[in-house]
Amino acid sequence: MIFKSARAIDGLNDRMGRLSSWLTLGMVAVSVAVVTLRYLFGVGWIALQELVVYLFAGVVTLSIADALRADGHVRIDVFYRDWTPRRQAWVDLLGTLLFLLPVSVFLAWASWDYVVASWSVLEGSRAAGGLPALFLIKSLIPLTAGLIFLQGLALAARSLRTLTTWRSDPRRR
């Protein structure tokens, strides 16, 4: 059950990573449009420029948990890479329980009032001609915290599985 849930969480964050890839393509297309309109036609739209920033926010926030899922996050690998799977599992489990999960809970908690205040006024751009949906972008903060938390649970489950199924490793030190 736990491992099935971990696979489901992996699937969710994989889909978020794929969505992030599409947002990156959209960001590039909109950036090309902004530059083309400005330098070939002398036209500038604040809304398009802000759309690039909104898309970038989506790319970054929606890809964080996927990077954790794919083990693509920053790690000091000097020691870790040479350790046994069991020792790596201990590091992953303790790091998840002591750092990752508490930080993701704090991020969600700390951003909640900020996001609620933005939704209460349906906050939009302060620039004339800007996009009216800043509250949606701010909502990505607690969403990202939730995705990171869930991916942390999946990582912890995989670490526990490694620790509980480990028999004997000839590389054990």
Characterize the structure shown:
The chain has 173 residues and is mostly helical. It has one domain. Helix content is 78%, strand content 0%. Helix 1 packs antiparallel against helix 6 (140-165). The longest helix is centred in the N-terminal third of the chain and has 40 residues, at 2-41. The chain starts with a helix and ends in an 8-residue tail after the last helix.
Features:
single chain, 173 residues, mainly alpha, 6 helices, 0% strand, elongated
How many domains make up the coordinates? 1
Poorly predicted runs? 168-173
Q: Which bin fits the share of residues in helices? A: over 70%
Tell me the number of helical segments per DSSP (H or I, 4 or more residues long). 6
Distance between the termini: 32 Å
Strand content: under 5%
Layout of helices and strands:
Layout: H1 2-41, H2 46-69, H3 77-80, H4 85-120, H5 134-138, H6 140-165
Helix pairs in contact: 1-2, 1-6, 2-6, 4-6
Task: Give the gist of this structure.
Helix content is 78%, strand content 0%. It has 173 residues and is mainly α. The relative contact order is 0.17.
